[in-house]
Design brief:
Blueprint (H helix, E strand, L loop, with lengths): L1 H18 L5 H5 L5 H5 L7 E6 L7 H12 L6 E6 L2 E5 L3 H9 L3 E3 L2 E7 L13 E9 L8 H9 L3 E12 L2 E11 L7 E4 L7 E8 L51 H5 L16 H5 L38 E3 L6 E3 L17
Antiparallel strand pairs: 1-3, 1-5, 2-3, 4-5, 6-8, 6-10, 7-8, 9-10, 11-12
Length: 354
């Protein structure tokens, strides 16, 4: 591992050195490629560049392993480092390519791995990956304005629109429309979109996000948390963004891989401000979910009795053997059970298989 890391560091150092070299005329002349020869070159297919949206260091090996497991490719996918936190990814069939490019966001330690197409005409891309794919929900659009054209305009206020779903989705006591967008990584996440029909009052529609990477509750940008933003010292009223902006898992698009999201959403400092509005998919609507979609505590199955791990391994004979007494013989080396008070006829003991 150390040798591989040192090798990559040397490559980065050489690249920096080449930028400062004074080249001779012979070195500058090089090889010329005519336009017609360039156009006849074979197309580089299914290649992309990726970058992890984070301010922290990370293990490239762990990132690659996690992504390969998430992509679950049908054929080999090449993954190599171009420079620090910039990777070249190439699929070898269209199915793997579509999954990598369309089924994100791909998360590694709650940080987004952003991917963009790369045509391979330069050693490194001229534009670095800077967008995160996500499904968004726009809540409570009145029936009159539920046209595809208006939905696209509203979704475009959040990010670059890939597609919109005109069908209204009912959830809890509310409803929303869903759109697939690409969010700009270095801009705050929009919390609402404002809509103003001519001659009418403005309306604000709340935006909820499905499966987002971590983001800052202070500045609203993805890739870091508020305690890593500036000095990180902010009052509760300064945190104008929060995990309340995350939609409940039960309302996600069917194609989105599920994760344990409710805990993160409800840990937001601003969560309590929104639990009263059932249309947002907050606490009220989450509590209306059927028990099989919730964990035992949320479904009311624990009833607050004891530790969840208490008596996790027990015997079916235990209730019948409550009165069993243990005693030692004269040497104290042997023990026996007093089963006088137990009706063994009530105990169904299965016979071993033949």
């Amino acid at each position: 591992m150390e040798a591989e890391g040192s090798k990559k560091a040397r490559v980065y150092e050489v690249d920096e050195l080449l930028k400062n070299l004074k080249l001779s005329e012979a070195e500058r002349e090089g090889v010329f490629l005519a336009k017609e020869d360039r156009e006849s070159l074979p197309e580089v297919k299914w290649m992309a560049v990726g970058r992890l949206l984070t301010v922290r260091g990370f293990s490239e090996q762990s990132l690659e392993k996690t992504l390969r497991a998430a992509w679950n490719p049908a054929r080999e996918v090449s993954f190599r480092s171009i420079e620090q936190n910039l990777f070249q990814v190439q699929a070898h069939c269209v199915g793997d390519w579509n999954r990598i490019m369309e089924d994100g966001p791909w998360l590694f330690r709650e940080c987004a791995f952003m991917v963009e197409k790369f045509y391979g005409a330069t050693p490194t891309p001229s534009v670095l990956p800077n967008r995160v794919q996500a499904w968004i929900q726009i809540h409570r659009i009145p029936p009159m304005y539920r046209t595809e054209a208006i939905l696209k305009q509203l979704a475009a206020r959040v990010g670059e629109v890939d597609r919109v779903e005109a069908k209204v989705v009912s959830f809890g006591n509310g409803y929303f429309h869903r759109a697939r967008v690409k969010l700009t990584a270095d801009k705050p996440l929009p919390r609402v979109v404002t809509f103003t029909p001519e001659g009418c009052e403005s309306m604000m529609f709340v935006v909820m996000y499905e499966k987002l990477p971590k983001f800052c509750n202070f500045c609203g940008k993805m890739g870091h948390e508020h305690m890593e933003c500036g000095t990180g010292e902010y009052a509760g009223t300064d945190l104008q963004f929060g995990n309340w902006m995350l939609a409940s898992e039960a309302s996600w698009h069917p194609s989105t891989p599920r994760v344990h999201w409710e805990k993160r959403r409800q840990e937001s400092p601003s969560y309590e401000l929104w639990t009263g509005w059932e249309g947002l998919g907050g606490k009220s609507s989450f509590e209306k979910m059927p028990p099989w979609k919730r964990n035992s505590g949320e479904a009311g199955l624990d009833n607050g009795k004891g530790n969840a791990l208490e008596d996790s391994a027990t015997s079916p004979l235990k209730p019948l053997l409550e009165g069993v007494e243990k005693s030692a013989d004269k040497t104290g080396a042997q023990r026996h059970l007093n089963l006088n008070d137990v009706d063994l006829a009530l105990v169904a003991i299965p016979l071993p298989p033949p």
